[in-house]
Amino acid sequence: QVQLVESGGGLVQPGGSLRLSCAASRSIFSASNMGWYRQTPGKQRELVAAITTGGTTNYADSVKGRFSISRDNAQNTVNLQMNSLKPEDTAVYYCRANTYNLWGQGTQVTVSS
């Protein structure tokens, strides 16, 4: 049973923007802190941004000022707005329900000219 479904990845030029979305079941979303992580080949998965049920956010230093995480409680989604993208942002991005340690399937983001 798929409980987290990501969407919005793709290919974008440096300096461009993408918006990732993660849809969760209501029972999970309403009770869980949520996060976006990313992973590149040969490296550990790293936290990009997280948001609590109360809306408190935190970001990796590498994305501060460029990425913004938000949650839509009516739609049971958590979104990641990514601006001023750089080639080093290229990775598979994963949504996670942190409170339950549930992961989505991942979505590829490629930043390249």
Notes on the structure:
It is a single chain. With 113 residues, this protein is mainly beta. It is 4% helix and 49% strand. The protein contains one helix and eleven strands. The strands form two sheets. Strands 2, 4, 5, 6, 9, 10 and 11 form a seven-stranded mixed β-sheet that branches. The protein has a four-stranded antiparallel β-sheet with strand order 1-3-8-7. β7 and β8 form a beta hairpin. The chain is globular, with a radius of gyration of 13 Å. The mean pLDDT is 95.
Measured by DSSP, the beta-strand proportion falls in over 45%
Low-confidence stretches: none
Summarize the amount of helix as a percent range. under 10%
**Count of alpha/pi helices:** 1
What overall geometry do the principal axes of the alpha carbons give? globular
Largest beta-sheet details: 7 strands, mixed
| Average pLDDT figure | 95
Q: H/E order of the elements? A: EEEHEEEEEEEE
Radius of gyration, Cα only, in angstroms?
Answer: 13 Å
The secondary-structure class comes to mainly beta
Total beta strand runs: 11
Distance between the termini: 37 Å
